[in-house]
Amino acid sequence: MAPKKSPEADEDAASTTEGRFSAISPLTRLRSLLPAFLSGSPSPDSRTLPTTSTERRRASSVGASLDQDEFLSEKVIEQQEGGTGLTDTVAKKETVLYLAYGSNLSSKTFRGVRNIKPLSQVPVLVPELKLTFDLPGIPYAEPCFAGTQYRDPDAAEEQSVESTDDDSLMDGEYMSEKVPLMVETREVRSSDLHRNRWHKPLVGVVYEVTLADYAIIIATEGGGRGYRDVVVDCHAFSESYKPTDPVPNHPDTPPFKAHTLLSPAADEALKKIHAVKSGHSSVAHSPCPTTWLLADIGPHVRPDGEYAQPSARYLNLLITGAAEHELPVSYQEYLSQIRPYRITTMRQKFGKGIFIAVWGPPILSLLALSKVFAGPDGRSPPWLMTLGNVLFAVMWNSYDCIFKPMFGDGERTLEDTPPL
Fold it and tell me: Which catalytic residues are annotated (predicted)?
């Protein structure tokens, strides 16, 4: 492994190279939409995985553990860029704990499309994180994908109480003529479309994977620049916990360390929060970017990270994955209530057809090239990553400036769009 870098050096490196690999992450998810001959994905591994042992979880908190190394992804990338793969025997003997929360919950995606072979798994709660849908995908088809951002436990607990009060309004003894109006007003003012109704800790699954498989995850998730790899505290459910039990706000099981991928919009969100606290208004985003210089192209972040809705296909991966792992029933219900993106007008249907006709061939070509030129650890060459980054930036600019004004919204169902 390369020597450990300082946080300052890491920030400097991120500011100059952060955008190079961001387009690979949505491309990986799009492979699941393609025929098997193009995606090249094998059948999902049907093995029943053992539960990650208590000893292995305790080992994650040891100072020398890879699970505590906040610079592990950077070290992996350095080796990849230096032409050194992580598929040797030594790498296979080392394991990393990796937290999954999105489509990687589904064995079809994680063990099938990505061909990751986890050694063990354990369902967990992560109090410091929340689920988001702010990673841009393809307008009209796959508007966004799942990510995570940091969560304020105190604020979330207050929102949880308010949400419980709202739910109690629907009980028969409280029902009145005023309730429908109150609920309607709350829904019109809210832009969450059910997805921000979960105010408890993030629910996910921690997989134990080999270091070689971890390198593949980092490569196919954007090479460490599409998302940001972070180390978080995870809490396994107690042995007596049943899926039908309420999800605790404050887990009482011992924490252990695991790597996970933070949304690229998380840093921007933190900046906005600090700006508001300091009395400065947030910077307005132009719906039609005017900067087209290659040097300015970085990870594509939409102006409003809570605007887009995931597709029904993508949501189904999260729902089926949560059921596979027998995650809490209340969390499964929450996922099933998130409203997916739907096309509701002929204008949008025409727009989708034209958009796919224009951008489908270059995207499919990029997918095919990423399959041909991928190394043994799944990493594409830098020139291909840069090409993908440019392609996605231009594609989203064309949507903002041409397709959306002409054909309608390709990120959010029209009937769910809040009034201006």
Answer: 221 (proton acceptor)
Is 99 annotated as a binding-site member? yes
269 carries a ligand binding annotation: no
Specify the pLDDT at position 85. Answer: 56
Instruction: Enumerate the active-site residues.
Output: 221
- How many Å apart are CA 409 and CA 307, to the nearest integer? 11
In eight-state DSSP terms, residue 109 is I
Distance CA 320, CA 339 (A): 16
Distance between CA atoms of 353 and 257, rounded to whole angstroms?
45
**pLDDT range class, residue 383, cuts 50, 70, 90:** confident
The candidate with the shortest Cα–Cα distance to 383, out of 72, 23, 31, is 23
Candidates 344, 317, 322; CA nearest to 333 is 322
Q: Is 101 annotated as a binding residue?
A: yes
Where residue 279 falls (left for φ over 0; alpha for ψ -120 to 50; beta otherwise) is: left
221-258 per-position pLDDT tens digit: 755 445 678 899 999 999 999 999 999 999 999 999 99
- 40-46's contacts with Cβ under 8 Å and 24+ in sequence apart are 40/371, 41/112, 41/113, 41/114, 41/115, 42/112, 42/115, 43/112, 44/107, 44/108, 44/111, 44/112, 45/107, 45/111, 45/112, 45/117, 46/107
How far is 415 from 417, CA to CA, in rounded Å?
A: 6
User: Regarding beta strands 228-236 and 255-262, do their DSSP bridges make them parallel or antiparallel, or are they unpaired?
Assistant: antiparallel
Q: 147: which 2 tokens?
A: 């990510």
Helices (H), 42-168: 54-59, 72-81, 89-93, 107, 153-168
Compute the distance between CA of residue 259 and CA of residue 98 in angstroms, rounded to an integer.
5
Q: Please name the amino acid found at residue 309.
A: Q
Tell whether residue 103 is among the known ligand binding residues. Answer: yes
- Grouping H, G, I as helix, E, B as strand and the rest as coil, residue 347 is helix
Are 156 and 199 in contact by the 8 Å Cβ rule? The answer is: yes
> For the chain, how far is it from start to end, CA to CA, in angstroms?
52
- Give pTM, 2 decimals: 0.77
Question: Is 238 annotated among the ligand-binding residues?
Answer: no
Ligand-binding annotation for 307, yes or no, is no
